[in-house]
Amino acid sequence: MGQLTAPTTTILIGTPVIGGTVGSVLFVGAGGVVAQDNANLFFDDVNNQLLLGNGSVTNPAYAFSSEPTNGFYRRTGAVMSWAIGGSRKTELQSALFAINSLLEIGWADAANLNAASTFDLRILRDAASVLAQRNGLLAQTSRIYRTFTSAADFERLSLITSTTGGRAGLFFESAGTGVGHTLAFGVSAEAWGIESTNNNFIGLTDNTHDIGATGATRPRSIYIGTSIQIEANNGLKLTTQTDGAAAQIGTLNNSPVAGNPAFWLPVTVNGNNRHIPCW
């Protein structure tokens, strides 16, 4: 096949306007130079580019014959916008992919999108500076992976809004060659943890942090299934207790020190008020 030669006369692409003026969108001039009759659409034969006008949100520069308000246009500067139905929905800025406040990002339940696809995972803007993962009445789960080889080999932190027990939960999970780790938490540094082997609640630094404070931010009650163990001969420290001696007078015959106890500690046993002697 021989080489194509440039035409010696203008070849029109389109329909010329009556009166001899070129009315086509594109035309090839003598010598093969592609020119234009409208600055909004022409072919740059030097850089091999088909150049469109900027367009607008209601008339995108690149649109579709069946829906001319759907397409892309140049909004301003280095900003390319996507219009749907004459409304700007998303745009690509020089350093930001932006979407309007009503749009959601959704993932389908299958590899191929079609009319029957169900979008069971959605993220969206819930309020100013608030990112939401929600989808109607469907419980959601968020996962951050420490390692991932496959769906059967991983280490991850999972925030689950509905567990098998119907509760919300925060878990460190692992499978395959993945290793379970202590779930740690604190402010600015690790302070407390839940051990991976037995789910014990522990202080990550020995004998360092307290639960509650004297006279303020106190837990109300502690319910124990078996026992309380206090180590290092510290004993049980009780403060602001009322002496029950007035209700319990008398001398104990088998007291560690002869005479009345120095203090009667009030206690409640099986719903009855009692007193423990202290010397």
Task: Give the overall silhouette.
Answer: elongated
Report the strand count: 20
- Number of distinct helices: 0
Mean pLDDT: 82
Rounded to an integer in angstroms, the radius of gyration calculated over CA atoms is 39 Å
Largest sheet: 4 strands, antiparallel
Termini distance?
Answer: 116 Å
Binned strand content: 35-45%
| SSE topology string | EEEEEEEEEEEEEEEEEEEE
List strands and helices in order, with pairings.
Elements: E1 11-13, E2 26-28, E3 34-36, E4 41-44, E5 49-52, E6 71-76, E7 79-84, E8 87-92, E9 97-99, E10 104-108, E11 119-127, E12 130-133, E13 141-150, E14 153-160, E15 169-175, E16 183-185, E17 192-194, E18 201-203, E19 263-269, E20 272-278
Antiparallel strand pairs: 1-2, 2-3, 4-5, 6-7, 7-8, 8-9, 10-11, 11-12, 13-14, 14-15, 16-17, 17-18, 19-20
Written account of the structure:
- Mean pLDDT is 82; it is low at 10-25.
- Among the domains are: 11-52, no CATH class; 245-278, no CATH class.
- It contains no helices and 20 strands.
- It has 279 residues and is mainly β.
- It is elongated and about 115 Å long.
- 0% of the residues lie in helices and 37% in strands.
